[in-house]
Write a structure and sequence with these properties.
By secondary structure, this protein is mainly α. It has one domain: Helix Hairpins (Orthogonal Bundle), CATH 1.10.287.1490. Helices cover 93% and strands 0% of the residues. The chain contains 2 helices and no strands. Helix 1 packs antiparallel against helix 2. The protein starts with a helix and ends in an 11-residue tail after the last helix. The N terminus and C terminus are likely disordered.
Length: 211
């Protein structure tokens, strides 16, 4: 009788061990599958992050190359514009000086003419007055020449600005685009790294069932 009970207990123990082994194998298999899925997800996140980051880096690099080309394209126009503005400024100063001289000489000639009318004309006085008028004519001609020169400078300046303006618009648009791309790239770096960290920090022990 005792022997029969002992065999029964042993049989039950063997069955329990077999069931435990079977459960252990199932648990190990489930954990392996879960870990494999976790590993695949981690690798996919890394791949997605690298691909998207590379895409934005490529876009930023291309935009910067295009920006550099536009800046080089604009540079000679800027240099010419600066030179024209300097020449125009110099011509304007000369024009102002000639205008002041013309006004002063006109006043002197007018006063001299009034004096000659009161005192009577002489050969010498008529010669002096004639020289004054010749000098005024010369100054007036120089003034007109400088006014035409300034007009030419202004026309050249406007033509340069017309050429520069579309390039400047493209440069501004590219700079804005680069800022937006860099902002998106920083967001991607932050978001993806956070996601990858979450996946990587998942504890395998949480995947094990409580026995």
């Amino acid at each position: 009788m005792a022997q029969h009970e002992h065999m029964s207990i042993k049989k039950n123990a063997d069955i329990s061990i077999e069931k435990h082994d079977e459960l252990s194998e199932q648990t190990v298999a489930k954990v392996a599958i879960a870990l494999s899925a976790l590993d695949n997800r981690y690798k996919e996140n890394i791949a997605d992050y690298a691909q998207e980051l590379h895409s934005y880096t490529h876009k930023i690099d291309n935009a910067r190359i295009e920006l550099e080309m536009l800046l080089k394209q604009k540079e000679p126009y800027d240099d010419t514009l600066i030179a024209v503005e300097k020449e125009a400024e110099y011509a304007l100063r000369l024009l102002q000086r000639l205008t002041d001289q013309y006004i002063q000489k006109t006043v002197v000639a007018s006063e001299l003419e009034d004096e000659l009318k009161n005192l009577g004309h002489s050969e010498e006085s008529r010669g002096v007055l004639q020289n004054r008028r010749i000098e005024l004519d010369r100054l007036q001609t120089e003034i007109e020449d400088f006014e035409l020169t300034l007009l030419d400078y202004e026309l050249e300046k406007q033509n340069l600005l017309l050429k520069i303006e579309p390039i400047t618009r493209k440069i501004s648009a590219l700079e804005q685009n680069i800022r937006e791309l860099e902002s998106k790239k920083r967001y991607i770096e932050s978001a993806h790294l956070h996601r990858i960290t979450q996946v990587a920090s998942a504890q395998p022990s949480k995947l094990l069932p409580v026995m």
